[in-house]
Write a structure and sequence with these properties.
Chain lengths: ~290, ~325
């Protein structure tokens, strides 16, 4: 058999792992990502411009005009203290959205880093981090939040801290699995052969290729954090009154569901809307990155 | 005078199963010997091919030489300097590797330029202001257009990626380049140019090339000398022309018979090799090829043959290798 004398022919580019770092990646994203972004942007805008849009002071009490039905003066009526519900809804965005975003972002950062370290270094580091995760997960979440809120006092800070303590576990698990998948890839081996330091390999060659999963999960987690905040406020563990907050507003409106159904329903719909927008982003990112 | 690259009795073992369980049962810990006492030497500019079936330990041998897997026993020397599993960065640099699968051998989130310049900077191969120039030179060296430097691997074809993989290895100016199945994943039409590139780089840069493959035709094309491996051991170590003209080990002959040839129809039932290689955990007694060997005799089950022959690059590990052909005593 003689040696083959082939000529090079042009080949088609191979399909690689999708990465958000790639320039064309955002163009391939499905429409729902942009619809979701639009919805979320609207909420952010409302939160930002609440003082400009809101017709009334959200804390201004008007005892003569309690539980009013919607009319031109009060678009969504008033609550049992005579406060304008529409204005309170707008102002509540300034409480719920930052807490929801921070309450998801901080655990995402913490969990991603711990998961990456656990997966890459393995051995006792892995054991220590993942057993801690087991302990956190084994603990009933709501009880932990209640304990923390009682220990640290009601307020945004303790809520965010509680979320961080609880939610990092999910990110750590996801990212650890991803790192285990990427760790033995040839490009990581090549970096080792080239004599690069472990932390550098983790930072440059492993981390950017596992971070996608965090980005996919993050929007869903913001939904969860916002809903959880609403639930805690509903139970009286969240933001103390009189600050407007969507979950607390649902709780306040609940006794009047028969007569003033919009009182509790509209804040609920507002939360659903934000959740929808974020879910669309999360789902779309997942589809776009898988393609 | 010692050789440039000297591999002596290199053995790599992997722990399989539970060592604790074995100890409780009073047995030695279950180790799998992936590379079993390989010895060879190579000079600057040599091109050595390593062939064998999958699972014969050829990739593990490569990884042991690069330092990716620890060595159980034996020694490795480059230019008189020992190559340890934990080696200094400057030593690490001297042995580089081209990987098999071009789709997973390049970091998908880095542009080619970022990837190459990271290595140039970390190893201080060139002054910082010359890094960009050197990246371009490396691209020219592997016959790729410079404008691909700005691109991420996702946009490259398999052959282009493999060239980038070669450029990455060459960026560190190694003395030894190990190509582990470097063309196995490429289309046949792209294999030849990549092989030609490796050949010319070896000549121009004086690299010692270790080319690992299961494909005899490819090894024959790039190597001056071939080591045939079977179950972790070298069974034949010959110059390429001699090996292909006159294979001495029955396993080598079987491998050659198994390679498909154009225009030659195999007679039905003429199977070159019977069965699968035995598990490396339960090696047969005597010669490890004897259960599948067409010329196995009684001595083969009793004594393992040494890798010997008339000269260091005329060696075969078979009791009958250097006897008159076809007459096993």
């Amino acid at each position: 058999m003689t040696t083959p004398a082939f000529e090079a022919v042009p080949e088609a580019p191979q399909i690689a792992e999708a990465s958000l770092a790639e320039p064309g990646a955002w163009k391939r994203m499905p429409k729902k990502v942009w619809v979701g972004c639009g919805i979320v942007l609207l909420y952010l805008l409302v939160a930002l411009l609440a003082p400009v849009i809101a017709p009334y002071d959200p804390l201004a009490i008007e005892p003569a005009n309690r539980l009013a039905s919607p009319d031109m003066a009060h678009l969504l009526g008033t609550d049992e203290l005579g406060r304008d519900i529409f204005s309170r809804l707008l102002y509540a965005a300034r409480v719920d959205i930052p807490i929801g975003f921070l309450g998801a972002l901080l655990p995402a950062i913490l969990g991603t880093m711990l998961g990456a370290i656990a997966g890459y270094f393995g051995r006792w580091v892995d054991t220590a981090i993942m057993r801690t995760a087991d302990v956190v997960q084994a603990f009933p979440a709501y009880i932990l939040v209640i304990v923390l809120v009682f220990a640290l006092g009601q307020g945004a800070g303790s809520i965010i801290l509680a979320f961080t303590v609880l939610a990092w576990v999910i990110y750590a698990r996801i990212i650890r699995g991803e790192v285990l998948r990427v760790r033995d890839r040839d490009y990581v081996q090549a970096a080792r052969v080239a004599g690069l330091r472990k932390m550098r390999i983790l930072r440059v060659h492993v981390f950017p290729n596992v971070i996608n999963q965090t980005l996919v999960y993050l929007p869903n987690d913001i939904v969860f954090a916002t809903l959880a905040l609403a639930a805690f406020s509903f139970l009286g563990l969240g933001i103390p009154p009189p600050t407007p907050e969507w979950g607390a507003m649902i709780a306040e409106g609940q006794p009047f569901l028969r007569t003033n159904w919009w009182f509790a329903t509209v804040p609920g719909l507002v939360i659903v809307g934000l959740g929808l927008g974020l879910s669309l982003i999360g789902e779309g990112l997942e589809e776009g990155l898988r393609a | 005078m010692s050789a440039f690259l000297e591999v002596r009795d290199l053995t790599v073992t992997f722990r399989v199963g539970s060592a604790l369980k074995a100890r409780l049962q009073g047995e030695p810990p279950p180790d799998l010997t992936a590379v079993d006492g390989i010895s060879f030497t190579a000079e600057r500019g040599d091109s050595i091919g390593i062939v064998g079936e999958s699972g014969c330990g050829k990739s593990t041998l490569a990884k042991a030489i690069t330092g990716l897997v620890p060595v159980a026993s034996g020694s490795l020397h480059l230019d008189g300097e020992p190559l340890l599993a934990k080696r200094a960065r400057a030593t690490m640099r001297r042995v580089q590797m081209v990987f098999q699968d071009p789709s997973s051998s390049l970091n998908p989130s880095l542009t080619i330029e970022k990837m190459l310049s990271e290595l140039l900077r970390v190893h201080r191969i060139v002054p910082v202001d010359k890094v960009a120039d050197r990246c371009g030179e490396l691209m020219e060296l592997v016959e790729l257009p410079r404008n691909l430097l700005k691109v991420r691997p996702g946009r490259l074809s398999g052959g282009q990626r493999q060239r980038v993989g070669i450029a990455r290895a060459l960026a560190l100016e190694p003395d030894v380049l190990i190509a582990d199945e470097a063309v196995a994943a490429l289309d046949v039409s792209v294999q030849a140019p990549v092989l030609n590139l490796l050949n010319s780089l070896r000549e121009n840069l004086g690299l010692t090339l270790m080319f690992i493959s299961h494909d005899l035709a490819v090894v024959r094309y790039v190597s001056d000398r071939v080591i045939v491996m079977y179950l972790g051991k070298a069974v034949e170590d010959r110059s390429t022309s001699e090996l292909f003209d006159d294979p001495r080990h029955p396993y080598t002959r079987a491998l050659m018979a198994a390679a498909p040839k154009f225009g030659v129809k195999k007679a039905p039932g003429e199977s070159a090799l019977k069965g699968e290689p035995p598990s490396a955990l339960k090696l047969p007694s005597g010669c490890r090829f004897s259960p599948r060997c067409p010329i196995a005799a009684e001595v083969c089950q009793q004594r393992e043959p040494d890798l010997t022959g008339p000269s260091p690059i005329q060696r075969a590990a078979c009791h009958f290798a250097w006897e008159a052909r076809g007459v096993p005593s």
